[in-house]
Amino acid sequence: MWMVQVMSGSTRFGRLLGVFAVASALLGGLWGTPVSANTSSTVVDQFANIDLPGELGQTGSDVWVPDTGHSIGGYMLDYWRANGAASVFGNPISEPFASENGRYSQAFEGGVFEFYPELVWTDAPSVSLMPVADVVLDARLGGFRRDGKRDAGGGDRQSDSWRDVPANSPSATTAVQKGEIYDQATAQTISGTLHDWYVSHEGYAYLGSPVSEPVQERGGFVQYFEGGALMLSSSDDVSVLPVVAENADVLRIDTTPIEQNGLPQYDELYFWKAQNPNPLGDPYALGKKWIEVSISQQTLWAYQGDTVISSTYVSTGIEPNHTEQGVFHVRYKLESQDMAGATDADGNVVALGEGAAEAAESGQASGQTPYIVQDVPNVMYINMDAEAMHGAYWHNNFGNPMSHGCINLPVEFSDFLFGWAPLGTMVWVHA
After folding, report:
1. What does the pLDDT look like over 71-87, one tens digit per residue?
2. Domain ranges of the chain
3. CA dihedral defined by 216, 214, 105, 19, rounded to 10 degrees?
4. Which runs of consecutive H residues, i.e. helices, occur in 222-294?
5. How do residues 329-387 score in pLDDT, each as one tens digit?
6. 272-430 has which CATH code?
7. Cis link prior to 166 (omega < 30° from 0)?
8. Measured between alpha carbons, how far is 136 from 58 in angstroms, rounded to an integer?
9. Complete DSSP assignment for 285-306
């Protein structure tokens, strides 16, 4: 059974906060100097009073997308790539801008990405979609009539698609019984193929709550959400509709194209720092990037949509420092890092950092044993336990647990994965 309470705008993320300070201190205070894809004085002034992504290991080079004539770089580029690039939310239709609600934003055909700094050190994605449903629906379908239906449009006007669905209604009950979604905040359901897409693409974090039931439009069924709209075609395919591009004027988004000005043209392989050592699928396959790690099989699979791009044996945590299971995201990346800490008499990692290792070495931390591994390559932190995927040059026993909780990768594979997996890439670790 899945019954969710999801609220509009920044409010809906409040329940996910609370670990920022601890994780920031653990990883060394990584905000640094805010950066932006644009550096003109106008843009600097525009971003003067908003939170910008810091130096978290995002892609260093901006690129230019010829289909829409816009650049994309840094944090927005990473999250766009992680979510399937143009194949999911479409191409960029603006340059980065400060939204009216004070967030670092960039518009794409299917949604407006917004940066949520308060979510950087949580397990939730720290980019979401600007709530645009009210503006889009008012522009497209008009206001409401007395009977609760829209004034115009919306396909079948005799349906109840624009009304609330009572929690005790047959459709709500059926959705709950089938393990699908009844959203208490908006009193709408998400079911069937649309539900499957919504769950697999972390729609709760990006699209937010549904604001309608599926309605007959565009030769298929369309369901509207706070941050965008999904269409289920007659062939049972789901896609994000370009509602932001269609309503850019109403949303007051500047879509003026820019010159390429020497920027490289976007190509997914441009970001790879090494070739795929175990190629299994088309590197241009459509769909969001995600990584699966099986602890029982000691294996990692890298996917784009439903396509397996690559795979490798790994080494996860050994007793008593098991690798945490759950759904995480690539949060912070370092090309190389010295990893140090201390363990207690039972082998539990009790402190992290060179300071902890030095205290144990000097005897200041009684009963603790220091450890340090220098120049660990391709470090990709994924969770609040400071566990990371990274290369391991000190052993070749992949396929067996070997670590303090991190996910050890063959160095050659880590070289590939570091470039392939941008910030925001979903990581599913299970038994």
Report:
1. 999 999 999 999 999 99
2. 2-246, 272-430
3. -170
4. 243-246
5. 999 999 999 998 888 888 888 888 888 777 777 788 878 888 889 999 999 999 999 99
6. 2.40.440.10
7. no
8. 31
9. --S-EEEEEETTTTEEEEEETT
